[in-house]
Request: fold
Amino acid sequence: MDLGHVIDPIARKAVSAEHNPKITVPETQTVFYFETTILPNNRYNIIGPGEYQFTVIVGAANCSPKSKSFKLKISGEWHLDETTMLSKGVEIHTI
Reply:
């Protein structure tokens, strides 16, 4: 499962599906894109820098729903090195 992604802020303008006009984030900062099956018209799957908490609930016809809560921190910084990006640019932890 792919929860989402972050791209280089310079490339953000080039991909119209990855622009949410409702959030004001400087062009030099990153945003997080939640991967969704259907792309929302309002682009609410795109969030700016900050700290967020959310819960994912997974269910199926043959089992009870299971939930897991997460804390997502987006610094807004872009790092070319993946390891640095995942430790300083985007952090996710279970809570």
About this structure: The first helix runs from residue 82 to 89. The chain has one helix and six strands. The CA atoms of residues 31 and 48 lie 5 Å apart. The chain has a mean pLDDT of 89.
